[in-house]
Structure formats: C-alpha cells, structure tokens
Amino acid sequence: MILTLIGFLSGIISGMGIGGGTILIPSLVIFYGIKQQEAQGVNLMVFIPVATVALITHYKKGNLDFSIAKLIIVGGIVGAIIGSFIAVKIDPLKLRKYFGIFLLLIGFYELIKKKE
Fold first, then answer.
1. Where are the alpha helices (H) located in the chain, listed in sequence order?
2. CA-to-CA distance for 73 and 8, rounded, in angstroms?
3. CB-CB contact of 21 with 47 (8 Å)
4. Distance (Å, rounded) from C-alpha 58 to C-alpha 15?
C-alpha cells in the first residue's frame, strides 16, 4: 500500500514535469532502506511508463517544442551514460548525500527566484 502511495505521489510530480524521483528516491531510501543506487534504478524503471503517459498528455495539449527537445535529448543521452558509470562506482552514502545537496540547491533556488 505504501509503495502504491509513493508511486501515486511520484506520478503526480512527474506529470507536472518536476521529476518524480524527488519523491520516489528519498522515499525508497528512507522508508525501505535500500541503497541509493537501487532507488535510482527503480526510479529509472518507473520513469519510462510514467513519462510516456505524461508525454502523450503534453503532446495533445501542444506543450512540446521538438526543436529544443532534440538538442536536450542528445545531451541527456551522453550525460546519462556518463552519470550511470559514475553512480555505480560511488559509495551509496556519498551518492545519497550528493543527491540531498542537489535537492536542497534546487529547493533554495525555487525559494529565491524572481516571479515571472
């Protein structure tokens, strides 16, 4: 039941384009005690069907700019390859701390950025 709730909340965040991993990864590490790398692996597996549904919805609403997306996809693929190799070699505790620092920086940025 808790895993379904975590998935539900992660799906809502993913559908909004924020990134469900911000909910899913810490939840798996904190509540289930799995290693950071395993939580990130689960997140990647969950991401595919969730992202597919969100992508279809945003496509139908005209929210996609393929010219921008193509460039980001190329960089993202290269970054994912490099990041995956790095993630499996890093100590899980250090990776968990790096992920936490990243989330804090993103949160801090969201608090101080100017309204558009």
1. 2-15, 21-32, 36-60, 66-89, 92-112
2. 26
3. yes
4. 9
Rounded to whole angstroms, the Cα distance separating 50 from 53 reads 5
Q: Going residue by residue through the chain (116 aa), what tens digit of pLDDT does each one get?
A: 888 888 888 888 877 777 788 888 989 999 989 998 899 899 989 888 888 888 899 899 999 888 998 999 999 999 999 988 998 899 988 988 998 898 899 889 888 887 76
DSSP three-state, residue 111:
helix
Q: Please give the structure tokens belonging to residue 46.
A: 């969950």
User: Residues 30-35: contacts with CB within 8 Å, 24+ apart?
Assistant: 31/2, 31/6, 35/92
Domain ranges of the chain: 2-112
The two three-digit tokens of residue 53, written as one number: 């549904």
Give residues with Cβ within 8 angstroms of 74, minimum separation 6. Answer: none
**Distance of alpha carbon 10 from alpha carbon 66, whole angstroms:** 25
